Amino acid sequence: MKFGRFNYKDKIQFGVIEKDNVTVIEGNPLTNWSYTSEKISLDDIELLAPIAPKNIIGIGANYVDNKQSLPNQIPEMPVFFFKPATSVIGPSEEVIIPNQLQEVKFESELAVVIGKEAKNIDKEHALDYVFGYTVGNDVTAPQFFHKDGHWTLGKSFDTFTPLGPVIETELNPYDIHVTAKVNGEVKQNSPTEWMIVPIKEMIAYLSTVMTLHPGDVILTGSPTGAHFVKDEDTVECFIEKIGSLTNTFKHADSRVHVSQK
């Protein structure tokens, strides 16, 4: 089932998306909801980020180039970082490159949406706590990484976490490819089985550190091939069973210049 969050006639709503239409629902998909009789064409709505998370947690350097390069053991302390809720945008919205920079990196990722409270869970049951999956772009300004390895500032600029287009609840996260195109050219294409820290282990580990709440989003790492993009570049992050998350990058200076015309 594909859940979308959208703007229609200046009202933000949730719905179930099927083919070219969305059926509006009452309530919140994460808790209690029910169908309404209202159906709207996708052409008439503005898709937003399918979730408005309070917590966004990312993992760094989580893919290898091939299955043979996977380590025998996962790291004792994986590299995690937080991203602020103010960094979240939806499909088709612009990613703003801050004035201090001329380019930033894109990172296409599978994003996990937590569905129920999780604390000190075991990996065998970790997926029971997942509501669904969406596509994320973990936009990054590595020039703002601290020399001792702190990544938060370089991940935290407004618009640096596009999510969408929908949350897919019926997905095997171990049987998909994470891909990305820049201006139509393929730059990333890796199966999730090339993750160093697999999804079950990732969720279970995080639950030993913090309580995960419904609506929290975990960015599960980006395949090799991520690189810098600049003003006017368009990045399409794609996972076949979820859909396409496409955003154009605009430098803050050029965006101001256009708005003054």
Would you kindly provide a written description of the structure presented here, covering whatever features stand out?
This protein has 261 residues and is mainly beta. The chain is built from 3 helices and 19 strands. The protein has helices at residues 152-155, 199-209, 252-259; strands at residues 2-8, 11-18, 21-27, 33-41, 46-47, 56-59, 80-83, 88-89, 95-97, 103-105, 108-114, 130-137, 161-168, 177-182, 185-191, 217-219, 228-230, 234-239, 243-251. Strands 1, 2, 3, 4, 5, 6, 7, 8, 11, 12, 13 and 16 form a 12-stranded mixed sheet that branches. It has a 5-stranded mixed sheet with strand order 9-19-18-14-15. It is globular, with a radius of gyration of 18 Å. The termini are far apart.
The proportion of residues forming helix, as a percent range, comes to under 10%
Given the helix and strand composition, which structural class is it? mainly beta
Termini separation: 43 Å
Q: Which value, in Å, is the CA radius of gyration?
A: 18 Å
Unreliable spans: 257-261
In what range is the share of β-strand residues? Answer: 35-45%
Mean pLDDT: 94
Q: What summary fits the major beta sheet?
A: 12 strands, mixed
Shape: globular
Q: How many DSSP helices?
A: 3
Oligomer: single chain
Number of strands: 19
Concise synopsis of the structure shown:
Helices cover 9% and strands 41% of the residues. With 261 residues, the chain is mainly β. It is globular and about 55 Å long.
Please describe the topology of this protein.
Elements: E1 2-8, E2 11-18, E3 21-27, E4 33-41, E5 46-47, E6 56-59, E7 80-83, E8 88-89, E9 95-97, E10 103-105, E11 108-114, E12 130-137, H1 152-155, E13 161-168, E14 177-182, E15 185-191, H2 199-209, E16 217-219, E17 228-230, E18 234-239, E19 243-251, H3 252-259
